[in-house]
Write a structure and sequence with these properties.
Layout lengths: L1 E3 L3 E6 L7 H11 L3 E4 L9 E7 L2 E3 L1 H11 L13 E3 L4 E3 L2 E3 L2 E3 L12 E12 L6 E4 L5 E5 L5 E6 L11 H9 L3 H16 L5 H4 L1 E13 L9 E5 L2 E5 L6 H17 L8 H12 L6
Parallel strand pairs: 2-11, 9-16
Antiparallel strand pairs: 1-5, 2-4, 3-4, 6-7, 7-8, 10-13, 10-14, 11-12, 12-13, 15-16
The structure holds flavin-adenine dinucleotide.
The site of flavin-adenine dinucleotide has 13 residues, from strand 10 and strand 14.
């Protein structure tokens, strides 16, 4: 459900990066992620201190949608609005149907997350260009990225300063900003993001033809650390997941399974343990009064 990106570049611009290429290389080496420094790539880039190639994959979203909706069709209900959730010590009843547990993976859109978060409406731009152009991420700091999608001739342009459309404590405010993004806002952002791309990709206007916007909302933890970790909260039989990045699904799965295991390790107060039953039986047998 993913494909390798043929040419995946991390480029450090000379003036606009917060760090120089040697420092970036040190950080990459420390992570243990394999990379190769390169002198040139198949795109004409300007004002670059240095660049590297690293393996990365692009997710085939439509294929994944099709795969999971086919394989899970017996247990999957799509497009169902959650109207009621009733919660007891033993079960969760969702829209009148009883379950052992509920996992809310809406990133705080439905039930609140147990850490302090804010909502950030976002705007990505889609462009059409020839097939096989590289993915280029300009690092590090308030920079941008040109990235292929599962459609061979469609690319996204995202920008650290221009993609966010604000920060909101309430989801309703964030939704309203996302839903009211109009032509003038998109044209203004297109201009800003194109200007930014032209700093390093002088042929950007000729190579990439604007197709349209993608509007969405990110949920992020409050703080300056740019934290993208995965958080799993639990309240009784309801889990809330804030997944960070897509690969953290594996972490969330482990956390949820271990929390469920811990639940089952707990001996409910109204059910005597086998040890307690044995002790009571023995006490009764020898005539000791027990509680
Ligand atoms: C601009 C942008 C760029 C990103 N880039 C990357 C990236 O490069 N790499 C990466 O790994 N991640 C990236 N992300 C994060 C990415 O969104 C997640 O990794 C991925 O979508 C997580 O999938 P998910 O299923 O956890 O959440 P989502 O895809 O957000 O799914 C949440 C679901 O909950 C549903 N929902 C919401 N409210 C309710 C409700 N009340 N009742 C029922 N359902 C509800 C929504 O309809 C949605 O389908 C990016 C996000 C944005 C916005």
């Amino acid at each position: 459900m993913s494909l390798p990106v043929g040419e995946n570049i991390y480029a450090v611009p000379r003036q606009t990066s917060l760090i120089d290429y040697d420092t970036y290389k040190l950080i990459m080496t420390a992570t243990g992620i394999p990379y190769k420094s390169i002198e040139t790539c198949s795109m004409d880039l300007r004002n670059i201190d240095g660049m590297m190639k690293a393996d990365e994959r692009v997710i085939l979203i439509e294929k994944a949608r099709h795969y999971f909706s086919t394989h899970l069709r017996q247990v999957l209900s799509l497009g169902v609005k959650i109207k009621s959730v009733d919660h007891t010590n033993h079960s969760v009843t969702v829209n009148g149907e009883k379950f052992d547990y509920m996992i809310d993976a809406t990133w705080g859109h439905f039930s609140p997350i147990q850490i302090e978060t804010f909502f950030e409406p976002t705007l990505l731009l889609y462009f059409e260009a020839e097939e096989g152009l590289p993915a280029v991420t300009f690092v590090d700091g308030p920079l941008y990225s040109i990235y292929p999608t599962e459609e061979k001739t469609i690319y996204t342009l995202s920008s650290v300063p221009h993609t966010p459309l604000g920060r909101y404590r309430s989801i309703d405010e964030a939704r309203s900003v996302r839903d009211n993004a109009d032509k003038s806002l998109i044209e203004m952002k297109l201009d800003l993001m194109t200007q930014q791309a032209l700093e390093n990709v002088p042929n950007f206007r000729d190579q990439y033809k604007f197709l349209g916007p993608q509007l969405s909302i990110k949920t992020k933890p409050v703080g300056n650390s740019d934290d993208r970790s995965c958080y799993v909260g639990k309240s009784g039989r309801i889990f809330t997941v804030m997944s960070g990045k897509i690969d953290t699904i594996f972490f969330a799965t482990e956390r949820i399974l271990s929390m469920i295991e811990a639940d089952h390790g707990d001996v409910p107060r109204d059910v005597p343990s086998s040890l307690l039953t044995t002790i009571r039986a023995k006490a009764t047998e020898i005539g000791i009064s027990v509680r």
